[in-house]
Design a protein that fits this description.
The protein has about 300 residues and is an alpha/beta fold. Helix content is about 45%, strand content about 15%. It has helices at about 20-30, 45-55, 60-70, 70-75, 80, 95-110, 120-130, 160-170, 195-200, 225-245, 270-290, 290-305; strands spanning about 10, 40, 115, 140-150, 155, 175, 180, 185-190, 205-210, 250-255. The strands form 2 sheets. Strands 1, 2, 4, 5, 7, 8, 9 and 10 form an 8-stranded mixed beta sheet that branches. Helix 1 runs antiparallel to helix 3 (about 60-70) and helix 2 runs antiparallel to helix 8. The longest helix has 22 residues, at about 270-290. The radius of gyration is 19 Å and the shape is globular.
Length: about 300
């Protein structure tokens, strides 16, 4: 392998609904003719990355996201009820009562179950975006990252059911039940690798473009309770781990998501536009970093598309 034909990997990070920004990033990269040789994803990055690796275009992904979020299946799901109400979009009395009881049910469930959302309630979202095929059959080589809660080790899926791999990667701790796979109890890949740069390096990528969609780490509000402090400590630890891995990326695209809730899918179009803007800001650096063979292909594609 020479510098002339190095492999390019794309690492898509987790972030719940904020991960829809990956659609915007992919749209810009595709329009600019920046092709990638492999993709690795964590959590929402695994959903978007797997769909794209299967051949779903960014435009199709945006439509599928809009269709799913408007569907009765999503509207009646537990995930939808977890999202905060947007300003100016307050539910009526019946809606408030419904949300109150559902919220109380979720909190009570976590006292007796490993997650607020059963796997079977989360699976329809995976099935909607991801075909039931082996990972080995994706058009672009793909890896999904999960965390084994038994051993504490990362689990990188490169074979087996694509849907199962993505489901395991998306099992947000405390929110979604862990996914049982043999002796492994799998949870969100973001526990150990929020933006899977190392996975791509280990898979043979010579240049890695990493996309992070996490919120700004600056403290919002006050720390009034022990739970607030514990949650804040976890945020700081996760941010440090993420930044440590991002240091190994060649290009980092940062789609700043402000302070939006991870389940606030009502802002889908905003997230996608934020992803587009972040990718455009990084284009100059991406072009400069492309190996010679890719630069030639890039300019040829740009010339034909102009």
């Amino acid at each position: 392998m020479t510098w002339f034909d190095k492999k390019i990997g794309l690492a898509l990070g987790g972030g719940g609904a904020r991960g829809l920004a990956h659609i915007g990033v992919l749209s810009v990269l595709e329009k600019e003719g920046v092709a990638v040789d492999m993709i690795a994803g964590t959590s929402m990055g695994a959903i978007i990355g797997a769909a794209y690796a299967c051949g779903v275009t960014p435009k199709e992904l945006e439509k599928k996201a809009a269709d799913y979020l408007a569907s009765p299946a999503f509207r009646s799901s537990i995930i939808h009820s977890l999202a905060p109400s947007r300003n100016g979009d307050k539910p009526g009395p019946a809606g408030r009562i419904f949300r109150f009881f559902k919220s109380g049910f979720h909190r009570t469930r976590t006292l007796f179950k490993p997650g607020a959302i059963p796997v079977y309630d989360f699976r329809p979202m995976i099935d909607f975006f991801i075909p039931e095929i082996p990972i080995q059959e994706t058009r672009i080589p793909f890896r999904a990252v999960a965390t084994d809660l038994v051993t504490g080790n990362p689990v990188v899926f490169s074979e087996g059911s694509l849907q199962d791999a993505v489901l395991a990667s998306c099992a947000v701790p405390g929110a979604v039940d862990p996914f049982r796979n043999g002796e492994m109890l799998l949870s969100d890949g973001g526990i150990i690798s929020l933006v899977p740069v190392n996975v791509l390096k280990n898979a043979g990528a010579d240049m890695v473009i990493a996309v992070t969609v996490d919120r700004n780490i600056s403290l919002k509000g006050e720390l009034k309770t022990a739970a607030d402090v514990i949650s804040r400590a976890g945020e700081i630890t996760a941010d440090r781990l993420k930044n440590h891995e991002l240091e190994k990326a060649d290009i980092v695209i940062r789609a700043t998501m402000r302070d939006f809730h991870w389940a606030d899918f009502s802002r889908a179009s905003d997230f996608i536009r934020d992803g587009e803007q972040a990718a455009r800001k990084a284009l100059k650096e991406i072009r400069r970093s492309l190996p010679p063979k890719r630069k030639l292909g890039y300019f040829i594609r740009r010339w034909f598309n102009s």
